[in-house]
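Minutes, project check-in

Agenda point 3 was the complex the collaborators sent over. CS summarized: two entities, 871 residues total, and the question is how they sit relative to each other. Sequences were read into the notes so everyone works from the same version.
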Amino acid sequence: MKSGDSKTARDTHPAWRIWDNPLFLRYCRSRLRPRGLGVSLLITVLIAGFIVALCGSIGLRGRLGAADAARPGVIALLVLQSLVLFVLGTAQVAGGMTAERDEGVIDYQRLIPMTPMAKVFGYLFGLPAREYAMFLATLPFTAWSLWRGGVDWRVWLPLYLVLFSSTLLYHFTGLVTGTVVRNRRWAFLVSMGLVFSLYTVIPQMAKFGLVFFKYLTITPVFEECLPGLLPESAGRGLKAIHAFAPTVKFFGLDFSEAVFTAFSQGGLILTFAVMLRRKWRRAESHLLGKPWAAGFFVWIQLILLGNALPLIETGTLFPSHAFRRAGIVRVSVEAPLAGEAVAMSGIYGLATLALLFVLAGMITPSLDKQVRGWRRARKQGRRSLPRFCDASSSAGFVLGMAAVGATGWYLFTRGLVESRWFPGQAVPLSTLGYFIAVMAACGLSFQALLEGRGARVLGLAAIFAGVVPLMAGAVLSVISNRMAPAASWLIGISPASMPFYASGSLLSISELPVHLARAVPRAFHFWLIVLLLAACRLLIGLRAARRAMAAEVLREP
Amino acid sequence: MIAAIDIRCLRVDYGDFVAVNDLTLAVPPGEVFGLVGPNGAGKTSTFRVLATLMEPTYGEVFLDGVDVLEDHENARRIIGYMPDLAPVPTDLKVWEFLDFHAAAYGLGSRSQRRERVAECLEEVALTDQAGKWCKQLSRGQTQRVVLAKTLLHRPRVLILDEPASGLDPLARRELRHTLRGLAAGGATVFVSSHILGELAEMCTSLCVMNRGRLLASGTADEVRHQLGNTTRVLKITALARHGEAAEWLSSRHGVHDLRISGHQIVFNFTGDDETQADLMEGLIRLGIRLRTFEEKRSSFEEILVEVAETNRSL
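CS then shared the predicted structure for the full assembly.
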């Protein structure tokens, strides 16, 4: 090769030189052709102009001053910009990435001498090039509205920084989906579903104590900045309300909404970037390495706890507080109910368990990967697998994450139950043991089934042991109260019910209805023992199978 | 001398299906080496492993001494890979597609890249199509554009999966010249096809695969010999005394299925070149006046079909 044999990919195309990135330029070329771009820009400019003109006219008709009349235009433009970047941009990233694989040209891109991160950035900023251009086309209108409305830069700057970080987060989501999901139509649907969940469904968990999830959206920053974007009179009232809770609490620290949102989104963006880098380095790699997955799990636990614990004492963490403020429920007493604390504990446990399953699924090697790992070890003259390699067993990491998750769950539950709202109540340390047993039994059964028997068996187990009992129990429970104990035994089979059963059975503030008061704790203890025994049995079988596999591979000629 | 392509005990499984089974072969530098086999023989899987696009179940692959499985980055610098069906992006023009790859391979300034793109387009005789959209190209033209892309960075090892499919006879001849020119320049070309005759013309040596296994390798004659297909059909036209000639031939070793049709005697012969020469000499000594002595070997296509069918029935 004539051109610079000694040059590495890092020298030729550093990841940070995005303006010089061939993939970025390739997509700028194809997506910014005058014919396609012209129509998109025309429509964008027309809508943006219409928004500004309409908002101004409404303001003037309402006899508002020029500044107050211009301000609502900023909000409407922000909605337009969010639609362009979040919806169109993400769809383009996910669909474009899948189209690359569908057409088969992704193989060429795998071979070109660019670093994995340079390729990731090339796609990330190149695929939605037209959407960025459409966004830029709205900026003159935004600038005019901001100037005319006299909006302080301390209001719009954080808002637009978080708009950008949210855009990156959603585009990364689309890119990961497009890279992982092989079918083009599914990639589009999954990425849009994920973005929809990230933006609307998951943030709803904030209402049940998992405050962190609302910082995955632009909403908290928008709400913080809203007083500065509304006409003077309306903004003043909101400003007064915000003065009561001006910052985000994180353990003992105070952050502005913008800083904390950027911090929260930054963690996810970094994790997505790591996933893509691994996939571009080696297509067969797991999405995350074991240490990174464990670190990510710990980070999520810290953020969940750091956000939630400071809000317990003020009562703002409890759903009833939010419902009271919204006027949804009329409760004469200010104190939260014991039942909602128990439910919140269960939801925390379930969310932790779900995250544990997702990460365990990412780091657990398939049978084929294990065999390849052993063969590679043999080639390198090793008698064992490196601890952190993809092919090594994930049991230790899953157990570690289960312990961390159970500890987080315990701390959250203790914070709720031992708060000033429930005087005289305590959560004994033995509860931590139970929580660890629940997390470990569920997590390790999942891991051992996946690693030892494969995804198909795990899927069947999830359906017949996870979903069917829930459905059958639900049907049984609505027949009559007399059937409720039998239904609770049936529902208890499902690992998804374990966190709720644990909270309901172990917490002193739990007030189970009479017809469930005996059945639920008994079902919980019984099924926990069964699940623990099953996990042990599966792990022993897995260990033996791995040893046999290693011996067989190392013996091969 | 280090082999340009060194494959050792390569195996590729897809679940229970074995696509490549214990493949071992070495290709010296500067060769145009052909890999032939029917559909499903394991050619594409082998090529994808060589191109660092697939991890094999086990085995080792070295390209110019670089371990493909351990050192992706360096291996990718020396290979040029053209996949089967040669996909092209639908949203780029031909020159844009090539310029993008030239930029990605760091082939200098814009003018240097343009020069190299023009060279490669000329090499595949597509200079006049540079401004055309990739999606508007015919199958053969698409193949040639992708070949041009593969040549851009002057790779030391070219891995071409069915490059001649879709090409017309003229383009095939040009491809043959191009590949030989590249090999003469020091590059090693590993090319596959399911048409053995096509490779026999193009390659300095070749190997035959079927159902993941290597059946034979070497020069075209060596491959024919290894496949056990040494039967040739001989046709003799004598001016007179056909019966006598036929009787004498029937008594010779290696002569089978003899039949007389008019002045012509046709028979299968499994002997070597020496004994074939002896036959002719013997007939002349007998005083039989021969007008023609023709040899017809089984075509490569026939051999391949025979091999594939034999393997299928196993």
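Noted in discussion: The mean pLDDT of chain B is 86.
Follow-up: revisit at the next meeting once the mutant set is ready.
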